[in-house]
Amino acid sequence: MNKLFEAPRSTQDDLTVLTAPTEIDIINADRLLYDLMSAAKSAPMIVLDMTATTFCDSSGFRRMSLAGDHLRAIGGDLRVVCSDRMHMLLSINQDDEHLSVFSNMTEAAIASPSLTDELVPAA
User: Which of 77, 78, 89, 100 pairs as cysteine with 68 (C-beta 3.0–4.6 A)?
Assistant: First the structure.
């Protein structure tokens, strides 16, 4: 099973960088969510490097959306670095509305926190 790997944390921006596996599907999507949520315990800003990811199915995108929603709820952000093709796939089901998408690591690292609409509490 492909595992996410945590890169050294940037002390300047308090970011945790995780590298996604080359393929994300129903087999490893729960591991993706687990690793993202585990990283959220130590840093509210997470960069998911998907530049080497060539395939991601809806289960993977859904887990990223869940993690992005969680991070925003605690004042953080999930920043995804991916190809234009992967960004297009994220946008098909509007999964890109749950996270911040960038085309390179530099943009993701220097971006200011997301200016998202306030979350509406459940009734």
Answer: 78
